Amino acid sequence: MLGHHYTHSFLETAVASVNAGCNLELSYGLRKNVFMHIPQALAMGNITLQMLRDRVRPLFYTRMRLGEFDPPAMNPYSSLDLSVVQSPEHRNLSLEAAVKSFVLLKNVQGTLPLRAQDLSGQHLAVVGPFADNPRVLFGDYAPVPDPQYIYTPRRGLEMLGANVSFTAGCSEPRCRRYSRAELVRVVGTADIVLVCLGTGVDVETEAKDRSDLSLPGHQLELLQDAVQ
Fold first, then answer.
1. Count of domains in the chain?
2. What is the pLDDT of residues 115-164, one digit of tens each?
3. What are phi and psi of 191, to 5 degrees?
4. How many CB atoms lie within 10 A of CB 89?
5. Rounded (10°) angle between helices 10-20 and 49-65
6. Range of 166's domain?
7. Where is the Glycoside hydrolase family 3 C-terminal domain positioned along the sequence (predicted)?
8. CATH at residue 143
């Protein structure tokens, strides 16, 4: 609220938040936060002790339900170790989730799905700044990925035995410098063209918003050249 100029100080923010029913803060850190001003608000009479107890009670009730105060022997996660991280079972589940989350907006003349058994006789062009750049495939707050488990569109298609040609057209999502001649060369002889565009955390994240929804830089031009 302070950052949005709704209040003018952390103390005023603490009073307004507690009175409004807020009981959890994503703080800036111990030296710059709101919740450390609650004792002062209490001492000044801006909030009551009963109100403070009412706000805290559901937090500890939730933590108790989550088992945070249970003995380690009662916690089923205590028996897990790092062997479950990136295990085949978990990677297969991630693949299933990805497959089931695709949204197909249009399928002219039944172009999709592309069947693996038919790809060996096809020449595919995979283009765009997201076609073979593992770094830009992850959103804000994503964990640090293990490169060996990252499958870019280019890598995935090549593993299916397809004849794949590739060019990024531009090296990063902002697409400030675009190589049209290289793109035209790659897509010119292709039977199927896959254009991989987007934004990524280089362009927009939390606290880094955009004023419009247009594709960054020359990405729209890249798409139009690929279609033509």
1. 2
2. 878 787 889 999 999 999 998 998 888 887 777 888 899 998 998 888 99
3. -80, -35
4. 8
5. 70
6. 103-226
7. 103-226
8. 3.40.50.1700
